[in-house]
Specification:
mainly alpha, globular
């Protein structure tokens, strides 16, 4: 049975948290004095009392547990509601700019909601034509939405609001990405606090490294937020390329790599347990995939003549591979040019580079990371399943359980992963077909959907790293918003709500 009072209580708490987070960009707006203070003050003044009303009017019994159905509903509604609250400052600012100047960065509510959902789900796709025209308060709010969404609004609630009076484990399982959820500590609230400690620590360290490389404090914080959340929002229109710095690129590669790892491994190596890191099969697959894809793309681009030097090609290749595979979405070059170079000049050697980029759209980061995509552990288990089928063809009676890190993976988990993979591909095809109806070419439509459902950010061609999603009609933008939500909550959490059996007692 679904209890509306319980759901209202949790959502009320999340509303208050999101509104309180607006205090930081509001402070920046006050310091700048450019007139956008009301964009944050109005939602703060409205959302906090409304959230407190829902929270205090729905008293619950002590230690009341959340059921699985309620966890799915709270997780989905939590993201929808959080994106709505996040979109309000964008929408108010857009309306104010439209009234003042006759033009707006957010001319429709769909665009404001697209930007907010993209931020919270750490997708990083944008509808903005001129990012640098936004005031710093809005740029900071975009990046902060990444940072909050990276570890998860629901996980944040479990970590710092234990006084909700409800058990948190079901929320944790509905929220944390990936097929496995390794608890770092026996209690879920303590687990969440340890995850957030690691998250904050890495953010602070990265900020210092970026400042050392010449970034301003403001740009360093915004890029650190986006990197650790594997989001990709930048304060520059051409992303990281604007800095033309090998140092900054390599620092971001390293921290994007860390952000794409399972955070349980961070906890292990911080305690001095390096064996867990080297023995983890997913981590080895993750590192090997990055090395092989980076080397392959660099080799293809060198052979094609796009870059004259393999080391230069590798510099740009590894940045794009790590950025896209971890679903961060930063760009250090316009990799659309690789496609133009291949198709426009008839240089076929760079076609494999584009093909490998498309492969990356389907891989994703590690389970238990802030990354999106299918996840490395699922890909690795699918490969192991395929290998087992080959063995069974030769030895039909063999009993060969699939293992990860010397532990047997239950057949139910294998079936769920196969089902997830098939559903992922079906949704990709269906939504890509829908996007072609809005005038996008096949490559643009496919990568637009792939980037949104994989929470990656840029696509290729019309939605490439130097382009944006503003020219897509509103209906198409709402479809992509739904794709972002599906990708962030890994499909099942959202689609289960559409089953009639979910709502039956």
């Amino acid at each position: 049975m679904i209890r509306p009072r319980l759901i209202a209580r949790v959502l009320g708490a999340l509303m208050v948290m999101m509104a309180l987070a607006m205090i930081f960009p509001w402070g920046i707006a006050l310091l700048e004095g450019k007139g956008e203070q009301l964009s944050f003050l109005i939602p703060i003044a409205v959302v906090i009392p409304l959230g407190l009303f829902f929270f205090h009017r729905t008293k619950l019994a002590p230690k009341e547990e959340i059921s699985k159905r309620e966890a799915f509903l709270i997780a989905t509604l939590g993201w929808v509601m959080a994106a709505l609250v996040t979109a309000i400052p964008f929408w108010i600012y857009g309306s104010w700019m439209s009234h003042l100047l006759g033009k707006s960065p957010f001319p429709t509510f769909a665009m404001a909601y697209f930007e907010s959902m993209s931020g919270l789900t750490t997708t990083g796709s944008t509808i903005l034509n001129d990012i640098e025209a936004l005031p710093n308060s809005m740029l900071f709010w975009r990046s902060l939405s990444h940072w909050l969404g990276g570890m998860g609004i629901i996980l944040l609630g479990v970590a710092i609001l234990p006084f909700l009076g409800v058990g948190g484990m079901e929320l944790y399982r509905a929220e944390v990405p990936g097929p496995t959820k390794d608890k770092l500590r026996p209690r879920v609230a303590e687990t969440a606090k340890h995850l957030w400690f690691i998250y904050v620590l890495l953010t602070v360290v990265l900020t210092c490294f970026l400042m050392f490389g010449g970034m301003t404090l403001f740009d360093s914080i915004c890029h650190a937020f986006s990197t650790l959340a594997t989001g990709g929002f930048s304060t520059k229109g051409i992303s990281v390329e604007a800095y033309h710095s090998v140092y900054i690129e390599m620092v971001l590669v390293f921290f994007m790599f860390l952000a794409g790892m399972n955070f349980a491994l961070h906890y292990a190596w911080m305690r001095g347990d390096f064996q867990s890191l080297w023995k983890d099969e997913e981590f080895r697959f993750y590192g090997m995939a990055i090395f092989l894809l980076s080397s392959g793309i660099a080799f293809a681009l060198t052979i094609s003549g796009y870059y004259k030097n393999f080391l230069v090609a590798f510099r740009y290749a590894i940045f794009q591979v790590v950025s896209l595979l971890t679903s961060t979405g930063f760009s250090s070059c316009n990799f659309d040019d690789w496609w133009i170079h291949a198709s426009g000049k008839g240089v076929h050697a760079s076609v494999p580079a584009i093909f490998m980029l498309l492969m990356i759209f389907f891989i994703g980061g590690s389970a238990g990371s802030t990354g999106g995509g299918i996840k490395c552990i699922r890909i690795w288990l699918l490969l192991k399943t395929a290998h087992r089928e080959f063995v069974r063809l030769i030895h039909p009676n063999v009993v060969k359980p699939i293992k990860i890190n010397s532990r047997v993976v239950p057949e139910g988990v294998i079936s769920a992963i196969v089902g997830f993979f098939v559903l992922y591909l079906v949704l990709m095809i269906v939504f890509s077909l829908c996007m072609t109806m809005f005038g996008l070419d096949l490559l643009s439509a496919f990568t637009a959907v792939a980037s949104c459902i994989g929470n990656i950010g840029p696509g290729i061609s019309a939605v490439g790293p130097y382009q944006n999603f503003s020219k897509i009609p509103q209906v198409g933008q709402w479809i992509l918003i739904f794709c972002m939500l599906l990708g962030r909550l890994e499909i099942y959490t959202v689609l289960v709500l559409f089953l009639p059996t979910f709502w039956r007692k």
